[in-house]
Structures are given as C-alpha cells and as structure tokens.
Design a protein that fits this description.
Chains A, B, C, D: Residues 21-221 form the Thiaminase-2/PQQC domain. Chains A, B, C, D: It comes from Sulfitobacter indolifex HEL-45. Chains A, B, C, D: InterPro entries: Haem_Oase-like_multi-hlx, Thiaminase-2/PQQC, Thiamine_Salvage_TenA. Four copies of one chain form a homotetramer. The first copy, chain A, has one domain: Heme oxygenase-like (Heme Oxygenase, Chain A, Up-down Bundle), CATH 1.20.910.10. The first copy, chain A, is built from eleven helices and no strands. Chain A has helices at 8-17, 19-25, 28-35, 40-67, 71-98, 103-107, 113-128, 131-152, 160-167, 169-190, 198-222. In chain A, helix 4 (40-67) packs parallel to helix 7, helix 4 packs antiparallel against helix 11 (198-222) and helix 7 (113-128) packs across helix 8. The longest helix of chain A is centred in the first third of the chain and has 28 residues, at 40-67. The interface between A and B is medium-sized, with 23 and 23 residues.
Chain lengths: 227, 227, 227, 227
C-alpha cells in the first residue's frame, strides 16, 4: 500500500509512528471491512460509538477554530466543524436508522472507555497546548481514514458504502486540504526546519498517542458488545 | 423604543442592566447613524475595529461550540461561526474595499485597547466559565445590535445599509434564534427558576460588563483616530 | 463500613453512584492492601502509574485555582497543588526509591491507557465546564481514598504505610476540607436546593464517570505488567 | 539605568519592546514613587486596583501550572501561585488596612477597564496559546517590577516600603528564577535558536502588548479617581 500524499508533516509523523501506524490502518476491523467478513453487529457497534466520537471530534475542531491564529486557519477549522455537525453526523443518524437504530437509541449510546479516552485526550491536548497540538492529535483520525479509504476504494460487498465514502474524491480532497492546513500551520509558527526542533518531539508524541487510541477504538468495535 | 422580544433571559438581563443598556443602545454613535451626522471617518474607523472584533467574536462562538452540551447547541453555535467567518467577515472586507480600504490595510488594523479588552473579556469568561458564561457575555453584542437595528429600520441617509442589515428580517430572525438558544441553555442547566439562583448574579455580571465594554467600543469609534 | 462525613455533596454523589462506588472502594486491590495478599509487583506497578497520575491530578487542581471564583476557593485549590507537587509527589519518589525504582525509571513510566483516560477526562471536564465540573470529577479520587484509608486504618502488614497515610488524621482532615470546599462551591453558585436542579445530573455524571475510571485504575494495577 | 540580568529571553524581549519599555518602567507613576511626589490618593488607588489585578495574576500562574510540561515547570509555577495567594495578597490586605482601607472595602473595589483588559489579555493568551504564550505575557509585570524595584532600591521617603520590597533581594531572586524558568521553557520547546523562528514574533507580540497594558495600568493609577 502506497501512502497517500497528504503533505509533509503527515508523511513525517506517519513514518515515525512506525508499526503502530500499521496496527491502526491494517487492523482486523479494517480487513473485515475489506473482505466483507466483519460481522454486521460489530459494524453497528462501531457506528454507534463513532457517533459519540464525532460529537467530541467536532468539539475539538471547534476548539481549533477558537485557537486559530489566522483567518484562513479559522475558516478551515470552522468549515470542518460545519461539515461534521451538518453533514457527517446526520449521515450517521440516517445510516443507523436504516439498520434499525433510531435517533433516540443512537443518542443513548453508552460511551466505551476507549472512546472516552481518545476524545478527551484530543480535547485536553488542545486545551493545554495550542493549535499545533490539536492538529497533531487530530491528524491520525482524519488522515488515517483517508489512507484506509483509499486502500479500500472500489470495494464492493456489505461495506461498499463505507469504502466509497472514505475512498471517494470528496473525502480525499478534504484530506489534502487538512494536510495542507497542518503543513501551513506548522511552518507558519516553527519555520521550515521545524522537524529539527524539540517541539517536533511533542507533536510526534501527540500523533503517536492518538494513533494508539485509534487502535483501541477498532478494538472496541471488535470486542463483545455490551451496549 | 419598545424592547424587541428575544426571549426571557435577554429581557431579564436587559432590564437589570438599567441605564448602562441605554448608554449602549442610545450611544451618540448610534444617534449619528440614525440622523446621518456620524462623520464618515468615524464610521470607517468603526468598521476597521469591528473587523478585528469579529475575528475574536467568531473565536468565542467557536469556543461555545466546543463547550456545548447538546448537539443542538453545538449546531447553533457552529452555524454562527460559519456565518461570521464565511458571510459577515467577507461583507466587511467588501464594504471597506468600497470605501478605499483594501484587505491588506484592513487586516493591518491596530487593535484599539477597548477592543482588545472586550474580546479578551468574552473569551476568558468562556474559557474560565462554561457555556452559560459565554452566552451571557455574547448576548449584549448580538442582541443589542438587533435592538439598535430594529430602532433604525427603514432609515435612509448615508448609513441606510447598516440600518437595513441589522434591522432586516434575516438579522432579526438570528436574534430570535440566539435568544431561544440562550433560554434553552439556561433552563436546561439551571431549571425554570434559575433567576432566583446565585448563579444568576454571575451571569448578570457577565452581561453587565459586556454591555459596558460595548459602550467603550462606540467610544473608540468616536475618539480621535490614530490608526 | 460506615461512610465518613465529608459533607453534603459527597454524601449525595456517593449515594447515587450506588454499586459502582462499592466496586471502587471495595476493589480486589483494596482488599489485597487490607489483608496483605496484594503482590508487591502489583503494588509497585500501582505506585508508578500513580506517580504519572499525580502529575495530571496536580494540573487539574491548578486549573481549579485558575477557575476559582473566590479568593478562598483559590487558596484552597492552590494549597492542594502545592501539597501534591511539593509533598505527595516527592513522597512517591522516595517510596519508589526504597523499592529500587529510581527517579529516572519512575519518570520514564509508560502511562497506561486507563490512566490516560482518567486524567484527561478530569482535565477536559474542567476546561470545558467550570469549577463545579472539576470538583465533581476530582471528588472520587480525593474522598474515595479518604474513605478507603479510614476503613484500612490501623492495618499492619506489608501495606501498613499506605493505610497509615490515607487513614491518618492529616489526610482525613484534608478530606473534610475538600468536602467543605465542594459544599461551599456548589451552594455559592446554585443555592441550597441545588440537588433539584438539572445541573445536579451533570455533576453526578462527572462523579459517576470518575468513579468508574477509578475502578479501571485499580484494574490496571492488578493487570499483567508490561511496563 | 542598567538593565538587570534576568536571562536571555527577557533581554531579547525587553530590547525589542524599545520605547514602550521605557514608557512603562519610567512612567510618571514610577518617577513619583522615586521622588516621593506621587499623591497618596494615587498610591492607594493603585494598591486597590493592584489587589484585583493580583487575583487574576495568580489565576494566570495557576493556569501556567496546569499547562506545564515538566515537573520543574509545574513546581515553579505553583510556588508562584502559592506566594501570590498566601504572601503577596495578604500583604496588600495589610498595607491597605494600615491606610484605612479594610478588607471588605478592598474586595469591593471596582475593576478599572484597563485593569480588566490587562488580566483578561494574559489569561486568554494562556488559554488560547500554550505555556510560552503565558510566560511572554506574564514577563513584563514580574520582571518589569524587578527592574523598576532595582532602580528605586535604597529609596527613602513615603514609598520606601514599596521600593524595599521590589528592589529587595527576595524579589530580585524571584526575578532571576522566573527569568531562568522562561529561558528553560523556551529552549526546551524551541531549541537554542528560537529567536530566529516565526514563533518568536508571536511571543514578542505577547510581551509588547502586556508592556503597553502595564503603561495603561500606571495611567489608571494617575487618573482622576472614581472608585
């Protein structure tokens, strides 16, 4: 699998994350989506947890808009919040409804511990740190889904829809935009040689932790379901 | 001037703010807009400061989206950010351009101390407090402009455009929505008798301080111009 | 076991937490401390994770000082930070050293996922909410340790020191102070009937989640050790 | 007046602040302290505003403790909070009492707009930015008072006490510690050549704005008194 080109920072972070990045992007859940062997109950379990996740993920992007230093950064972050709240979350509501989970049931989902851990980690990184901490902690989800989606593009079978959304041009274009936002934000603050600064280690650590929390999120989806 | 009906909380806060509310909504700047005697230089000075203000105001609404407790609150706050960043701020750029202030000059505006005081007060209230602190600190600007706009509706003369925007149905409708958002948010957390709680005093204090900072903002616009 | 009297809010929260409170305060780890059957390796594993925990816990109390609304609240919160950073953490360093874990090893401890989840949950509750959210999320740790300590007081055996610290008068007195701080903070904002307000549900939810995260923390200590 | 040596970052920031630094450290208020011509009413007005200022200043240092990345940074920040809350603020209470302003009157002081602007600017810089933003925004007050105190050391006359406190060894030592904290924090994140990075411009801007807000604070003290 060739890594997609979502910019310089992502390439560096992804490379340094090493095996953990493979554990995330080649997780058994992903392979189950690919070959269609993922049990539907696991998929629905995932969708429900992902809905709760998206609420907090949108909050984190809103925090990024509050912490932006330029109007362009603010516009990019606020457009992402808008897309999450007014497009992606309603889509989840609809998909779940088509599988017999109505909105009330969806919103009553009990947040799994690993889900809580992930979203609070990202939000706290943003509150305690700055815009760059948020970008590094948000990147594995946004861009990892892009990379996974690309590798599943054209897939048919029971999860063809999921593959089409994340492998599709619209989402891929969003990934390139986010990658460019990240590159611009890092260089604007730390200059072109930022990878040599101690700050780069902190950012890598944000990316690495969020990557491991993504692995944990797939694990939830495959774990025996108690919701 | 009959006060417009933007909901229960606003009515209570406005009433308790007393004379300071009149100092804001009947400020000499407002009267100058009404009778057309406001010097154009003052108006342009105001527009430039207001542009800087809107950047931080949008950040505060983004923070509100991050601090929302329901999806509806998040959707309302994020829609406001989106409108500010993608509609209202470009409108300011355009209006200023039509008066010979290009985008570069506009973005190079030196923030007046009273402008800085106001926006940082609102943001800090939001960071240190919760969603309600933000609502109380944001209300005087959003809803005060609605009230002023309503009282200037149909005005012609040099500032007819300004009067048409804030007195117009679109902005009035936004004010009713924000008023409803505030009422819902307060009751959802503090119940129907919230005005009897000590918390009501803190919220009133947020509203009062922001009202005084609005007075200070009009003062800036009328002060000798040094930008 | 009679519940200690650390104030009204704690009593209410503890009561409503129900069985989960027992799962935390009567966890197998606690019983192992009591009867001395806790393997030393588990105890050391716990001490190391607890050191990492205390760092973030102190940060959360510092955030409480930043979000305090009165000088007394600020003084109480800052005294707690001071005690954690200048007394409790050095004590951990010393205890670990006496078991052959030097400071470098201690500070190199890899944060367990359940540890990260807990501390980031508390910090994020504080950043996104207000002082009361922090108090509700901090209470299970501070006051639960008091309750456990009290039930283990006078214990001898290998964990006599731990039991003496948390069951001792100094820590019990701190618990009563924190309980009073919480009671004062809640009443000061929400009035004497705060338990009838919707806000009480959110605070209970903060307390409940932190209680479950405490259960998870004991679980870490008993889990096979990979650090 | 030779600038005191409180470290590299301070020297750079102070140098780049240029004339504004002189406007602050050689303000008419300072000269009035020096030659004893400062009216006592102005001094008392200053003390009262400064008390309100210290509350928020302590909150900002508490936020720094919450945002620290090392235990040493946390210890330094929390020691400062502790000193402010448990030493410096009680000293203000005592000094004011000796001039006939009792604690109730002191705590009822109406915050001047320029006071509010300053503290909210610092806190918001800290919340929206990171530890370094806080350090740059806090430096002009802490270290500027050190520099002023040093230049007034040994002064007698009506303000001998003030001069003795800020020119005294204890405060000078604190300034060297804070200077070292700042230098360590900047290098730890940005490396030895941090002054060449774009980030240095943002930090300078934080320092410059806080310096101007200090000028505004002295202006308050000399303005006609309406409290």
């Amino acid at each position: 699998m060739t890594a997609p080109d979502y910019g310089t920072a992502f390439a560096a972070w992804r490379g340094a994350a090493g095996q953990d990045w493979q554990r995330y992007t080649r997780h058994a859940f992903v392979e189950g989506l690919r070959d269609g062997t993922l049990p539907q109950a696991s998929y629905l379990h995932y969708l429900r947890q992902d809905y709760v996740f998206l609420i907090h993920f949108a909050r984190a992007w809103a925090l990024a808009a509050a912490k932006a230093e330029t109007i362009d950064e603010m516009a990019a972050a606020s457009a992402t919040v808008h897309a999450l709240v007014h497009v992606e979350m309603p889509l989840h509501v609809q998909t779940c409804a088509s599988h017999g989970i109505d909105r009330t049931a969806l919103e009553a989902t009990t947040e799994a511990p690993g889900n809580l851990a992930y979203t609070r980690y990202v939000l706290e990184a943003g509150y305690s740190g700055d815009f760059l901490d948020l970008m590094a902690a948000l990147a594995p989800c946004v861009l990892g889904y892009g990379e996974i989606g690309l590798s599943l593009r054209g897939n048919d079978g029971p999860y063809a829809d999921w593959c089409a959304v994340y492998g599709g041009e619209e989402y891929q274009s969003l990934c390139r935009d986010v990658g460019a936002l990240v590159d611009g934000a890092v260089e604007r603050r730390l200059g072109p040689d930022w990878q040599t600064l101690p700050r780069a280690t902190t950012l890598q650590s944000r990316f690495d932790t969020a990557t491991l929390l993504e692995v944990g999120f797939w694990d939830i989806a495959l774990s025996p379901i108690s919701t």
